[in-house]
């Protein structure tokens, strides 16, 4: 078995195959109706425009607070809240924001499923007492629900989601958060992901090992030689990860 004790996993495109479309008219009409139910009246066009405006405002705020941070993320919960405030709706509970976010995600998602072999690998790592950590560029409002939906929460020793930290891969400092928290040995830690920039280049900057798996939703690759990884799976066969680790 390979000399890895700690496994950092990307989520979307690595463990979960997902397809979303946030430009779908049905999405914005559904969200418009939900806001209308609460007294925040929008047209579909205005809602979409203000959503994107508030996203940019949140990004600017993060950049202002972290001037040296190259790769940032925001919490979309703040955007959904601003859409209420803009229409002078003050009764904004956390449960209301979670409901809006869950609806937004579910309506915009056309496909979501685990890749074949995910449970098999995670069971194998658990049986061998390996530390399993999620390190994802994602939104907690979406991702925590989807982790639970597939029962993945029982496998992870910890979960790190970029929206909670306002930083994302491939920033080295994002990788260092779990490394420092658990005092992980980089030489015994491997990042498994489907993005050769965010996952593999970022892991390399943090002196971690890498296992790359190319999927349909991965960033296109013009030169395979540029992928920094201990092992590359270019045909998307997730089961090959376990085969590699067992050698």
TrEMBL record:
Q: What molecular function does GO assign, one term?
A: metal ion binding
Q: Does the keyword Chloroplast apply?
A: no
Alphabetized UniProt keyword annotations: Hydrolase, Magnesium, Metal-binding
Residue span of the signal peptide, if any?
A: none
Q: Which InterPro entries match?
A: HAD-like_hydrolase, HAD-like_sf, HAD-SF_hydro_IA, HAD_2, HAD_sf
The source's superkingdom equals: Bacteria
Q: Which cofactor does it need?
A: Mg(2+)
Alphabetically, which GO biological process terms does the record hold?
Answer: small molecule metabolic process
What is this protein's record name? Answer: Putative hydrolase of the HAD superfamily
Organism of origin is Lachnobacterium bovis DSM 14045
């Amino acid at each position: 078995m390979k000399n890895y004790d700690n496994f950092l996993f990307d989520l979307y495109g690595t463990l979960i195959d997902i397809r979303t479309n946030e430009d779908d008219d049905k999405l914005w009409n559904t969200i418009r109706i939900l806001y209308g139910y609460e007294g925040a009246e929008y047209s579909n066009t205005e809602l979409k425009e203000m959503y994107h405006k508030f996203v940019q405002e949140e990004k600017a705020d993060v950049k202002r607070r972290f001037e040296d941070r190259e790769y940032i993320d925001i919490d979309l919960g703040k955007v959904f809240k601003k859409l209420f405030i803009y229409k002078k709706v003050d009764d904004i509970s956390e449960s209301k924001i979670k409901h809006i976010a869950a609806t937004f995600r579910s309506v915009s998602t056309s496909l979501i499923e685990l890749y074949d072999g995910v449970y098999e690998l995670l069971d194998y790592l658990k049986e061998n007492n390996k530390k399993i950590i999620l390190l994802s560029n994602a939104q907690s409002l979406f991702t925590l629900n989807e982790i639970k939906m597939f029962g993945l929460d029982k496998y992870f020793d910890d979960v790190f989601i970029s929206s909670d930290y306002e930083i994302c891969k491939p920033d080295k400092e994002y990788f260092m958060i779990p490394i420092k928290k658990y005092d992980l040995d980089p030489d015994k830690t491997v990042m498994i992901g489907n993005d050769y920039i965010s996952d593999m280049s970022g892991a390399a900057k943090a002196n971690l090992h890498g296992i790359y798996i190319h999927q349909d939703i991965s960033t296109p690759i013009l030169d395979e030689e540029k992928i920094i990884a201990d092992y590359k799976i270019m045909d998307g066969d997730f089961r090959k990860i376990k085969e590699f680790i067992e050698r």
